[in-house]
Amino acid sequence: MIEGLDGAGKRTLADGLTAELSRRGRSVARVAFPRYDADVHAELVAEALRGGHGDLGDSVHGMAVLYALDRRGAADALRVDLETHDVVLLDRYVASNAAYGAARLHQDAQGDFVAWTEELEIKRFALPRPDLQLLLQVPTEVAAGRAAHRERTEAERQRDNFESDASLQERCGEVYAQLAERNWWSPWRVVSGVGQVDFAELADVVMAA
């Protein structure tokens, strides 16, 4: 599972890791959340993030429930992937909900929102537990620059309200770091998103998890 700020380079990391694992003969399944093209809850998220559905986007818990329902809808397919592939790589998972919601409410990783997320997604929905959570860590300004570049160069990619909020991204990065330090839910590994990633070393870490 790969976590990080918008623009941190999660997709690039997933591509490089997939290539290295495939080179070793390992089968890899990949899922990116939210599943905008596959789940109605994710569709509603995308619309709310761009101002649709009245004040839905302003509701931290309302948006978090939609994100969670998207993952719940994917849970059975994830379990199949886990049984049939050597590695399942997820671009965002439960920790994204915890980090962004806590940041929106100006809470830290020990606050009520992270506990609420754990109660909903981990205990009530019983989502599959990741063996390892990778935090792709970059300075906020670097992530923002990459997100802006992506918006300019990818016609279909427009930054949403969360991605455009620099202070939110800063707070979210702090919560992510706290979650990683606590090894929240399962073990974490922090990966620097600045400079070259040693994919061979990272693949070793993933396979050992």
TrEMBL record:
Q: Does the keyword Transferase belong to this entry?
A: yes
Q: Which CDD domains match?
A: TMPK (cd01672)
Domain (Thymidylate kinase-like): give its ranges. Answer: 2-184
* Swiss-Prot/TrEMBL keywords: ATP-binding, Kinase, Nucleotide-binding, Transferase
An individual GO BP term:
dTTP biosynthetic process
**Gene Ontology MF, one:** ATP binding
One cellular component term (GO) for this entry is: cytosol
Any single Pfam family the record assigns to this protein: Thymidylate_kin
Gene3D superfamilies in the record: P-loop containing nucleotide triphosphate hydrolases
**Family (UniProt):** Belongs to the thymidylate kinase family.
Q: What is this protein called?
A: Thymidylate kinase
Gene that specifies this protein: tmk
